[in-house]
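Handout, page 2. Input:
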Amino acid sequence: MQTRVERANGAQSRRRILEAATEIAGQLGYSATSISEISKRSGLPNSSIYWHFKDKDALFAAVIEDSYQKWSAYFSEKSEGLITSPGSSVIQLHESLESFPAFLRFGHLVILEQHEVELGARKAFLEIRHRALALMAEKYMAQTNCDGDTAQQLAAISLALVDGAFLSRVAGEQTFNSPVLLGNVFDTYVREIAPGTVQ
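Output:
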């Protein structure tokens, strides 16, 4: 019984640490986020953080993976059973990531930061993007009957559109105010490289 309680407490502590780290890192980025600040925000001592994670880099790699798992579950639930066009797939991707802004913001920050030794957190986010691109390419192949190379190109462009829309929104630019515009732009491009696949 005590072991179960200890496990439950341990899982609860780990969750509090991850949530505090996600929140702070989404605002400040990797370098400006300290273990001390995470300790304050989570209400747990530094020793508890280091018990769960060997160092700051391991913690942030876990933050990225945890955030991805939450987003992935949400995206799968929202898009399950929907028959979509390439453009509507981009809209779904954009809207789902809009619900998890800290994940995308921190991922972008960690990609842009330069360190002598590559961060585990940066590797984790790049691996997630690699997985996401492969899944999107599969989806576009099914939607358009295009070849693998074309599907990979479509996946890269759709992710770039979503990245750009996120940056535009964070910058407060009024030129981008509807995800439908993203879908229309993408469908126009798909018609160019895979004619007859989008009505």
